[in-house]
Amino acid sequence: MNFIGIMEDEKKLAAFEAKIASGQKIEPKDWMPEAYRKQLIRMMSQHAHSEIVGMLPEGNWITRAPNLRRKAILLAKVQDEAGHGLYLYSATETLGIDRTELLDQLHTGKAKYSSIFNYPTLTWADIGAIGWLVDGAAIMNQTALARGSYGPYSRAMVRICKEESFHNRQGYEIMMHLAQGTPEQKAMAQDALNRWWWPSIMMLGPSDDQSPNSDQLMRWKVKMESNDAIRQRFIDRTVPQADFIGLSIPDKDLKFNEQTGHYEHGPINWEEFFEVIKGNGPCNAKRLKARNDADKKGRWVRDAAMAYAEKKKAKAA
Amino acid sequence: MTDTQWPVWEVFVQANPGIPHKHVGNVHAADAEMAIQNARDVYTRRSEGISIWVVPANSISASSPEDQGSFFEPSNDKPYRHPTFYKIPEGVKYL
Amino acid sequence: MTLQQAKFQYLLRLGDSSLIIGHRLSEWCGSGPILEEDIALINIALDFVGNATAFLGYAATVEGNGRTEDDLAYLRNEREFRNLLITEQPNGDYASTITRQFLYDVYTYYLYDALKSSKDETIAALATKSHKEITYHLRHTTEWMYRLGDGTAESHERMQNAMNDLWMFTGEMFDMDEVDQTLIKEGVAPDLNKIKEQWEAHVKPVIAEATLQIPSYNFKQKGSREGKHSEHLGFLLAEMQSVHRAFPDAKW
Question: Is the pTM of this model over 0.90?
Answer without folding.
Answer: yes
